[in-house]
Amino acid sequence: MSKLPKQHKFIDLSDYGRSPARLIARSLKGTSLTPIHVTTMFIISGIIAIICMLNNYNVAAAFFLVLKSVLDAADGELARIKNTPSYTGRYYDSIADIILNFLFLLTFWHITDGSIIFMLLAFIGIQLQGTVYNYYYVILRNNLNGDTTSRVVENVVPEAMEGEKQRTVDIFYKIYDVLYIVFDKTIYYLDRNAMNGKPFPKWFMTLVSMYGLGFQLLIMALMLLLNLEEFVIPFFMGYSILILVFIGIRKYVLE
Q1: Looking at domain 13-252, what is its CATH homologous superfamily?
Q2: Distances (CA, A) of 149 to 9, 95, 106, 142
Q3: Residue ranges with strand state E in the chain
Q4: In this structure, is the dihedral angle defined by the CA atoms of residues 174, 177, 17 and 101, taken in order, positive or negative?
Q5: CA-CA distances (angstroms) from residue 43 to 9, 117, 184?
Q6: Exposed, middle or buried, 99 (CB in 10 Å: 0-12/13-18/19+)?
Q7: What confidence tens digit (pLDDT) does each residue in 37-80 have?
Q8: Could you give the CA distance from residue 253 to residue 255 in angstroms, rounded to a whole number?
Q9: Helices (H), strands (E): how many in the chain?
Q10: Residue 252 and residue 255: Cα distance in Å, rounded?
Q11: How is the chain split into domains, by residue range?
């Protein structure tokens, strides 16, 4: 099951792991493993990547970063195959992503002996970048009656779906809200009218997918393979300038 109708599918630069993710999901369809288990697997993959970076095993670190991205897609694919979407899984996934992103950049800071201030700025940049991508992508999916587990505005606790407990959803939502509220509200206020226009064209979504987490991890992996780890933090600081470019295109070209 795709997140978008066929006629609106675009080339998603961050979604290179979708095919292997589907294979993983299909292989797990008849097992007792759940999407939550797969999310836990990508957390483990991310931790292994960090351990490899700390020990200068750059090739292995790059592999586990990409594997983390594949597994990040596989949990959603498994949820769709088993028809078990959940807000618990959605928030657990997002909480794991933001914590791992911080730890990845903290590790790059540690192994390059750079500036902690620059590391924090790069982290803020990465999160705002990902929020831009998710904001426009969720709006597109909602407008086209696609996958609606993610909501454009996460401002109230959702009602638990079948198979999950409301208390669990409440707890995960509160954690999600604390971690993401600043980033979500920043992008929302920069382009609050985005959800009122026509569906975004494919070329625009492909451009914005440069900010997808999968593409961000791929950039980190490539820099590790090229022994350019000291440039990761400066790169993501500078990469953030495209946030204003993409929002400007949406507001003044696509309006």
Answers
A1: CDP-alcohol phosphotransferase transmembrane (TM) domain (1.20.120.1760)
A2: 18, 15, 31, 9
A3: none
A4: negative
A5: 28, 26, 23
A6: middle
A7: 999 999 999 999 999 999 999 999 999 999 999 999 999 999 99
A8: 6
A9: 10, 0
A10: 6
A11: 13-252
